[in-house]
Specification:
Oligomer: single chain
Strand order of the largest sheet: 5-2-1-6-7-8
Largest sheet: 6 strands, parallel
Number of helices: 8
Shape: globular
Number of strands: 14
CATH architecture of the largest domain: 2-Layer Sandwich
Bound molecules: NADP nicotinamide-adenine-dinucleotide phosphate, ligand 3JN
Number of domains: 2
């Protein structure tokens, strides 16, 4: 099993390499790819070192699986090339997610969608990912009419440069030094909250991140009739996205039954004892692969609505872990190799 990791020097790519190692993915060889800037760099992996390769003509040959996290432009050009050369691509970018023939898959939610792949499988956006893991057991039990979500997203979702920007600004503010001008975000992120994640396109009142959450959720759950309203905010947190979710169900659902449903669902940990200060926290979810849920309570304004707080490590379950889980499922189901198409 030869595995390519494209974007291996980035925040997501490095996490993919760690997750492959931790989960002992059955790879005979892993080849890290990045831009020309990083070619030749060495990365420690499984007690040895891997040499970073540039994406040049012919690089796509000879792989069974390719895990991509180098952005939409790279995925647009190179994912089809790797797929044509025989690999199954698991792509972390938004480039292929909404294409009708590309499955958009979360391991605990719709693994059966992998069966129809034609060489490219899409990994959802991190904010969508942790939300649908929690919505799925509720949908199956009582149906869902509408979801209203507000996110509190960590800077690691924007990549390595954003992590450095938050560090630099925080250090400068604490030392009462002059602040370097923001270069990644449109405003200072340290000690601030930005009601903008990604960009506003073509006069749209919603950001591209909010549109992704609304569209991807319906595709993954296979339900066009679920209303989704999203507001995405960036907060000065390094790891883990937090979400406040209001779910309007079709049939009544008590908080107690909801806790039971979620506690027995795969990939979810319920942490819900608020009177003793126990609820999901970004710092506790960091480094973990599960989705954490707490503050499950009735919405006093509607008899079929519940509120909850959902937290997950955006680089792990939100990106790398799900990508590796999908690779594992593809291997287990015999869906790797051109014979599987
Ligand atoms: P990052 O830290 O900036 O890393 C970007 C990676 O892509 C680096 O390895 C970089 O290599 C590589 N790269 C850039 N241009 C390239 C090119 N022309 N050819 C080959 N490699 C190139 O970003 P990140 O946070 O890891 O995110 C990377 C991508 O993953 C995002 O753009 C997004 O599409 C996706 N992502 C998905 C989620 C999700 O929600 N599932 C979350 C975050 C990110 P160098 O080091 O050589 O520049
Ligand atoms: O901002 C976040 O917290 C998540 C960011 C995801 C992201 C960042 C840059 C480009 C994506 C994504 O996965 O949707 C993309 C993209 O591929 O469009």
């Amino acid at each position: 099993m030869r595995v390519a990791v494209v974007g291996a020097t980035g925040a997501v790519g490095r996490t993919i390499l760690s997750v492959l190692e931790e989960r002992e993915f059955p790879a005979s060889e892993v080849v890290p790819f990045a831009s020309e800037r990083s070619a030749g760099r060495e990365i420690a992996w499984r007690g040895g070192t891997l040499r970073v390769e540039p994406l040049v003509d012919g690089a796509e040959e000879g792989f069974d699986i390719a895990l991509f996290s180098a952005g939409s432009a790279v995925s647009g050009e190179w994912a089809p090339r790797f797929a044509r050369a025989g690999a199954v691509v698991v792509d972390n970018s938004s480039r292929w997610r909404m294409e009708p023939e590309v499955p958009l898959v979360v391991a605990e939610v719709n693994p059966e969608a992998l069966d129809d792949h034609r060489g490219i499988v899409a990994n959802p956006n991190c904010s969508t990912m942790q939300m649908v893991v929690v919505l799925k057991p509720i949908l199956d039990a009582v149906g869902i009419e509408r979801v209203v979500v507000s996110t509190y997203q960590a800077v690691s979702g924007t990549g390595q440069r954003a992590i450095e920007e938050l560090h630099r600004q925080t250090e400068a503010l604490i030392a009462a030094q002059e602040l370097p001008p923001p270069s990644v975000y449109p405003h200072r992120i340290a000690f601030n909250v930005l009601p903008q994640v990604e960009t506003f396109k073509d006069g749209d009142d919603y950001t591209t991140e909010e549109r992704k959450m609304m569209n991807e959720t319906r595709k993954i759950l296979g339900r066009d009739d679920i209303g989704v309203s999203a507001t995405c905010a960036r907060v000065p947190v390094f790891s883990s996205h937090s979400e406040s979710i209001n779910v309007q169900t079709r049939e009544p659902l008590s908080p107690e039954r909801c806790r039971e449903l979620l506690a027995s669902a795969p990939g979810i940990v319920v942490v819900d004892d608020p009177h003793n200060g126990r609820y999901p926290l970004a710092i506790d979810a960091a480094g973990r692969d599960e989705v954490f849920v707490g503050r499950i309570r009735r919405d006093p304004s509607h008899e079929r609505c519940l509120n909850m707080w959902v937290v997950a490590d955006n680089l792990r379950k939100g990106a790398a872990t799900n990508a590796v889980q999908l690779a594992e499922l593809l291997v287990e189901r015999g869906l790797v190799g051109s014979a599987a198409r």
